Amino acid sequence: MPRTKQFDEKEVLNKAMELFWERGFHATSMQDLVTHLGINRASLYDTFGSKDALFEQAFALYRSTGRQMLHRFFVEKHPVKDNFKKLLDVAIDEAINDPAKKGCFVVNVTTEMVPGNDRLHQVLLENKHYVETFFREQIQKGIAKGEIGNHVNPNSTAEAIFTFYSGLRVVAKVEPDVEKLQKMVRVVLSILD
Amino acid sequence: MPRTKQFDEKEVLNKAMELFWERGFHATSMQDLVTHLGINRASLYDTFGSKDALFEQAFALYRSTGRQMLHRFFVEKHPVKDNFKKLLDVAIDEAINDPAKKGCFVVNVTTEMVPGNDRLHQVLLENKHYVETFFREQIQKGIAKGEIGNHVNPNSTAEAIFTFYSGLRVVAKVEPDVEKLQKMVRVVLSILD
DNA sequence: TTTGTATCGGAATGATTGTTCCAAAAAAAA
DNA sequence: TTTTTTTTGGAACAATCATTCCGATACAAA
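Above: the input entities. Below: the structure tokens describing the complete assembly.
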């Protein structure tokens, strides 16, 4: 009986994610969204609820796809350090090739919404622990395989890489210089030696 | 002849800096500023011009005091690595002891205003080069004094520390855990060995 | 004390904010 | 074709946005 939706919900959410990612929560108005998503105001509210709810869903989509990519990078048979290098190299490529200079949505949300939004703060904390745990496990595998010396502290090193990664996505916004960034990554990854 | 100002301009600018630093540009309204600074709306516009101009002045104040602190940390007679450690330790202390969790104003401005504000982007680029140059010079001094091995690349290592520092101030917003942060710093500073 | 000028408090501006509402349109089922 | 349900377009909402304006106030020089 109901009329069919004239737009693809996932497609629209993707566009909303891009806009929030680029401009942030406060600098993106519902009018901007209506214009860029190409759907009606009422449809936007009917489908996603509110600006806050839409933002939350857009951010959830980003983290979800981010985790999928993360797992895709870490190929079991490759040396662990190579996998980390790949992860950082892709971050550099993204920074260089994105004319919009969006950076990392997670980092952007951290600096914009903490303090002020406890709900998102908790999401960010969970995300941090998830990624750090993943990194730690990878380092432990590397140690077990003999690729990484057992003098390396898996916990602190995982946290260090997570932190450096966050910083990389900030500074790459300011100066997206491939060579500088790559040389820098090489220096930092020496903590795995 | 003119009536004397009933407020200290520097004091007011400091309060404006704190508010912008904590909430960011877009989430801080002129009404918020009028309320928190304790001065009149008209006085605010008469003294600082506009919201944009006030923000720019507040951000300039932050960078100015930041540079002063930077130079104060690096005591010539101390080992260079100790000076870097002190810099990062103070960043940790600030993160732990600031209940407002403001983070770093420079990082916040980077993620909020780039892309979108070319003027601030240029300021951020200049700031990056300034700090990186300072770091590089310190590392070169360390090498000259024999404290740091000459296999260390001053340029890339300076950039790496700048990047890690930026990341530190992001993740410390999410999880201000002293011990974790300190252990992490120790790991990263091993790139100077 | 008078005069001239800048500050002050607060109202008023027009634009934009997020959100709601409603009549019209459209599509699937009867 | 008729009925039913939802989407759609756009107007309308009150609140808030940055900014301006003005009469009243207050202070320093004359």
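Note for the figure: The domain at 7-59 of chain A is CATH 1.10.10.60 (Arc Repressor Mutant, subunit A).
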